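Hello forum,

I keep getting stuck at the same step: I have a sequence, I want structure tokens, and every attempt I make locally crashes halfway through. Rather than fight my setup again tonight, could one of you with a working pipeline run this one for me? It's a single chain of 166 residues.
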Amino acid sequence: MSLYSLTHEYSFIMQQIEDNGGELTEELSAQLDTIEAEFPVKIENCCKYVRNLDAEIAGLDLELKRLTDRKRVALNTMKAFKAYMKQSLEAMELTKLDVGTFTVSIQANGGNPAIEWTGHTCDIPDNIIKTTIELDKTKALEIYANADKLPDGLVIHPRGNSLRIK
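Reply #2:
Ran it on my machine without issues. Output:
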């Protein structure tokens, strides 16, 4: 019987006991004993499966790191070769070169130009300032901790719970 079936069967038996006015018949007692004996075994097997998945995830994380490092090396190598070819073309005063299968050219980048403010941020003119408004969660939690009245629209959600396998 699956863990789901055991849980469902347990709930059904509890409902029958309640329907009988709290009386536990021999038949219901036998069914309850069977469920209570099987339940820990099912939970243990679920824990073993979770541990196996945890080990698999750790292995996948290592493989992901290895592949990410390999990608970074390939990307840096590609950038270095492109910079090398660009520098060589510029040294030869060429902007375009047909080399059989490929045509290599140096051209201006599209899009907007790079913009940077070199002065102090306090000196940025108002018409080019972007202001971001966000909730100060630290102050909101202080209000909550002091049992002060919460402002309208502020909702504090209680922490949930989780399953821990030791």
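The helical segments are 3-19, 26-91, 137-145. If your local run keeps crashing, start a new thread with the error log.
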